[in-house]
């Protein structure tokens, strides 16, 4: 084996791969780059080593924890030569959970890193684009308006926190999550203590027994309204009435306490089965002057401060006019469409989740908006139907989940050929893939690609770009 491993493949056409490191070995290396997703990368004898909490230009020592043909993973042992942008947050608990992997990187350096990552991703996709400096936050922490946290009994005490990286269900206790609205952290602690007083049982994957799974808290940034959702494995929770009453009595501005029944085999944080234990079935908040109804399952951007900047930027890039017909694909509860409705002639929204469309239409009604309508349908099929009905959109907005757009939706965009196609993305890799697809089918980028730090302290970034059909 020499000083490492050799992987021999059965196929004679594939060469033997020499691995110059061993499991458990400590290696010192210089960090060459940090990839999108937060992995710092250096090399030992040309073989890539991936690790976390390390930044470009640093020399670090890491302990090899995993090996494969392409690269190894290592745990940071010591920073030998720190970057001038490195901070000491003292929050090993946060790093252990992965909540804020950039917590030890100065904020201006986080913004520069994200700009560079987006630029590299576009270059790798063969896209020539100008990626502008990342728009950041004035206070880049304690910003999230929603969180879902697990519970555990440790030393006979009920704790809340977050799952330790690399484990299935080991909870790292936390009181300050660093990225949450501080009031949300206070609410989590209050609810936890009430649950502890009632000696609630926690669901165990190992035994299949127990009731409670998670606590979810939402808080309106402008309204300050609070919703608490108790996520259970079971259809009822012992003492649920008393627990709800105590939460209502102890949490300021509480408007809603909900039981969400979520059997483990669903493999999601929340199910669609909600039952109001106290108060209303939703809370409200405002975004760019529009009042939104927010239920336990509503998709509502978690950073309301930057969301206003993001949507205003997207509307500006769209160059909207009062004559425009706008399609809001993946419309959710209508956040994008309704915030631009007063700038255009008509908004048509499509969303596959019926519950979200119900919320969107509630939002239309409560805001007295008369030029917007939302339908429940698969977006590509609905866009084909609109096209067949003679709908000619001037602008299409998309803000898809991390997997990006399907080819069916991209083909529908090509068929509709809007004057402006505004792509808002939370994953620059799938965004670049989709833009490459459109560039190959008669579109061109208009203007600059703009990253925006919707998720400070994390490895994620929001990005906005506009495409237009090529001139004949």
From TrEMBL:
Keywords for this protein: Methyltransferase, S-adenosyl-L-methionine, Transferase
Sequence positions that bind S-adenosyl-L-methionine: 301, 330, 351, 399
Residue ranges of every copy of the TRAM domain listed in the record: 20-78
Molecular-function GO terms, alphabetical: rRNA (uridine-C5-)-methyltransferase activity
Domain of life (superkingdom): Bacteria
Keyword Methyltransferase: yes
Pfam family of the protein (one): TRAM
Record GO biological process: rRNA base methylation
PROSITE patterns: SAM_MT_RNA_M5U, TRAM, TRMA_1, TRMA_2
Active site residues according to the UniProt entry: 426, 426 (nucleophile)
PANTHER family: RNA M5U METHYLTRANSFERASE, TRNA (URACIL(54)-C(5))-METHYLTRANSFERASE
Family: Belongs to the class I-like SAM-binding methyltransferase superfamily. RNA M5U methyltransferase family.
Name of protein: 23s rrna (Uracil-5-)-methyltransferase
Naturally occurring in which organism (per UniProt): Weissella halotolerans DSM 20190
